Amino acid sequence: MTIIQANQSHLDQVAPLFDAYRVFYKQQSNLETAKQFLKQRLEKQDSIILIAYAEHEPVGFTQLFYSFSSVSMQPLFILNDLYVKKNYRKQGFGLALLNEAKTLCKNHNYKGLALQTETTNPAQKLYERLGWTLDKDLHYFWTNQ
Q1: What pTM was estimated for this model as a whole?
Q2: Is the dihedral of CA 73, 131, 123, 141 positive or negative?
């Protein structure tokens, strides 16, 4: 298993994973748009994408977005995306991606990592095992329709 930080040369490897991730969350598949979205993130340097490989095959990824806590006046990462191909789950790839994200956070001396997921996502058990705690505070979200 290898984990690398993606750059634009990895777009053809990570875009199918990102597209599959979106399909998992009930979005229509659109590989070209997924690739363009990731390309923009990398060009603008507003996210970090980590890719997990089994041998030389890309099998999972996570994407971290830069953010800040105004109250503590510290930067943090938002772990917005985590995906591992179905036939590679429960083999440590998700664990390795999460641990690498934690290492990046420590190396940058950031406050921490925030993540949001569906209440039915079985990965919650992994998050809790790795030290994430469920925030019991109320959160609101406004959708611009």
Answers
A1: 0.90
A2: negative
